[in-house]
Design a protein that fits this description.
- By secondary structure, the protein is of the alpha/beta class.
- 28% of the residues lie in helices and 8% in strands.
- It is built from seven helices and five strands, in the order H-H-E-E-E-H-H-H-E-H-E-H.
- Helix 6 crosses helix 7.
- The longest helix has 18 residues.
- The chain is globular and about 40 Å long.
- About 25% of the residues have low confidence.
Length: 233
């Protein structure tokens, strides 16, 4: 697998040769010299169009702008993150609400480059037994486009190949499944931070990536015994 620095180099080089002037200073679209101000009202002061023989007064010539062409576009196959049509939870759900769903196993091993820490499994993730299995989740797409799985975009069912092939792992701060994060209590998230700490001390990955602000807040509260202040975030 090519070093991540080399994978990112072509994208970075395309910007190094350009200055901010290229984006902030408009370019002149014509080399034609504007007529003196004292002759603008004269009926014989005209500009001849390059594609037409009809004389057009300067003041009536509209300015046309070209639409920017984005170099990077999201493929049509990328599922939308819309929540329309989904059922929204009404708040905390006790553990027995989804006790029929199996726990999601961690994907951890020694010598990992990075471990991604999610909040907890969703209904579809727990049902299928694959991390980030819901069609609206962009995790596997972003994992590929960022260069972490450079050869191709993996399917959720291929999560077991992450440690051996890419030195990546997955776990969650709370193990039980819910419809969404609002059905978890703050206390169980803080308690889960202690369990997460034990896992990281055991497997010792180089980097731990917290996939969400609420996970960071739970880890902070577990470590410091209080919530995080606004200026500390």
């Amino acid at each position: 697998m090519a070093p991540r620095k080399e994978l990112a180099e072509p994208k970075l080089n395309s910007f190094k040769s350009r200055s901010l002037d290229a984006y902030t200073i408009p370019k002149k679209t014509s080399s034609t010299t504007d007529p003196p101000e004292d002759k603008l009202d004269a009926p014989d002061t005209i500009i001849m169009g390059s594609e037409s023989n009809i004389a057009t007064p300067v003041s009536s010539q509209p300015l046309k702008r070209k639409r920017a062409n984005n170099d990077v576009s999201i493929p049509k196959s990328l599922p939308r993150g819309s929540t329309s049509g989904r059922k929204r939870s009404k708040g905390y759900a006790p553990p027995d609400t989804y006790s029929h769903l199996p726990p999601l196993p961690d994907t951890l091993s020694p010598n990992l480059l990075c471990v991604f820490v999610g909040l907890n499994p969703g209904i579809q993730t727990a049902t299928k037994g694959h991390p980030y299995a819901h069609p609206s989740n962009h995790y596997w797409y972003l994992l590929h486009t960022s260069g972490l799985t450079p050869d191709r975009r993996l399917a959720p069912s291929e999560y077991v190949t992450l440690p051996e092939k890419y030195s990546l792992g997955n776990t969650n701060i709370v193990s039980r499944a819910t419809r969404d994060g609002s059905e978890l209590s703050k206390d169980e998230m803080v308690a889960g931070a202690g369990v997460l700490d034990e896992k990281m001390r055991k497997w010792k990955p180089e980097v731990m990536c917290l996939v969400g602000k609420s996970i960071f807040e739970a880890v902070w509260k577990w470590k410091h015994g209080r919530g995080i202040r606004k200026e500390e975030f």
